[in-house]
Amino acid sequence: MEGTASLGHRDDDDAALACLVEEIVDIHAAIASLEAELATRMAATQQIANQRAAHQSAETRMREIEERSIAAEIGLATRVNDRAVQNRMHDAHELVRDYPTAHAALADGRISSRHAAVIVETGRALQDPDARALYEATVLERALRDTAPRTKAFAEQVVEELHPRSITERHREAVKTRTVWMQHRGDSMSELGIITPTVLAEGIWDRLTQQAHETKTVQVAPPADEPDADDDAVYDERSLDQIRADIAIDLLLTGGPSVDPTTGAITGPAGGLAAIHARASIVIPAVTAAGFADRGATLDGATPVDAETARALLAGAPSWERIFTHPIHGHVLATDTYRRPANLDRYLAARDIHCRFPGCRRPARVCDRDHNHDWALGGTTDACNLACLCKRHHTLKTEKPWKPVQLRDGSIRWTSPLGRVSTDPPERYVIFRDEPDPPPSDPPF
Ligand SMILES: [Zn+2]
């Protein structure tokens, strides 16, 4: 009886599951269809940007301002970073213009937006319309019956077959995309990447691996004939990965380039570029600095840093800025500098933390100080009229009718060219009141 009952349950479950799967399939198709609609609209905004840009001067920067402003308008309305919106506009425009069959398949829910993205991104290498049409037909056939990652691998092979230019020519172009990038990954860790020609990447990897093996061999291994002879030996317990990372970081932080254009020297041991040291802005609460708590230290006021690292950096710094925050709401009240008098610039960097355009997170130290109300039109040079804006958004504000008005509490009320209003309050330092008060010997607020 029991067996029959559980089989009955399973039948019920199977029926319910089958129903859920059907519904999931339907919802997937509906989402794909909406994604196609969205792409149509996004492509249309790109089209408007292109038309407006055609009337602008030939300067690339000025032509791009139109689409940046439109991207910022959409970003403000949807709470999406405007750089991300701009990328989506480009992708949508390419999908609608260059891959109409794939766009139609998306609209019918036969492929997902990830498949469509694969087709657009991988096909970007093909310029010839005939080659692209053949590519679209071939890859779409695969996309209709396979996952997006597999479709991507297949699409790359198709591009390789159809590409009119030799790999030598293409590599020459690709070399121009070399870059270094950084991304925070949480827990006070970040990822640093380099895009470089494969032969150099392989070379770097091989050299680091050799150096790591050598380090491990020299430092770790107890002598083979007396395995536990030396009690004082310091054995290297780091993994090969950890040693590789440590050596790479050491080389990047302390080495200089082999050819230094600033000094003309083939190797610049002490001066020139080698003399440029790494900079980091650490915000560390007094109670954490004093060792009474372990919380609240941040890089550039935004990315959490562990207290040990923050205290080590503070101990080694020749001078530091003090930022006084309100004990309840956390707003910045004032700044001063150990050794130097307070100044407006430091205050702004501490208050704003990042660019004050809606959604932007460029750190204040790489931002311009913008007069919200133009200095030439009578705007004052004080904190009530100044704010940090990154180059991109400073230019946008100068060139297009994006209007900021600073309110008494440091909030900035932005009005977009289409009249959409958004208020950006100054960033606050997060404070929870469960830490002990600072010792009485600390400087009074
Ligand atoms: Zn910005």
Q: Name the bound molecules.
A: zinc ion
Largest sheet: 3 strands, antiparallel
Q: Ends: how far apart?
A: 77 Å
The figure for the number of domains is: 3
Enumerate the strands of the largest sheet in spatial order, edge to edge or round the barrel. 3-4-5
Structural class: mainly alpha
Helical percentage: 40-55%
Q: Beta-strand level of the residues, as a percent range? A: 5-15%
The string of secondary-structure elements, in order, is: HHHHHHHHEEHHEHEEHEEHEEHEEE
- Rounded to an integer in angstroms, the radius of gyration calculated over CA atoms is 29 Å
- Unreliable stretches covering 5 or more consecutive residues: 338-342
- The total strand number stands at 12
Mean pLDDT, all residues: 81
Instruction: Assign an overall shape.
Output: globular
SS field, number of helical segments: 14
Report what the structure shows.
With 445 residues, the protein is mainly α. It folds into three domains: 2-170, no CATH class; 180-221 and 236-275; 282-424, no CATH class. It is built from 14 helices and twelve strands. It has a three-stranded antiparallel β-sheet, with helices on one face. Strands 10-11-12 form a three-stranded antiparallel β-sheet, with no helix packed on it. The chain has a two-stranded antiparallel sheet with strand order 1-2. The chain is globular, with a radius of gyration of 29 Å. The model is unreliable at 338-342 (pLDDT under 50). Residues 355, 357, 360, 362, 389-390, 392-393 line the site of zinc ion (ZN).
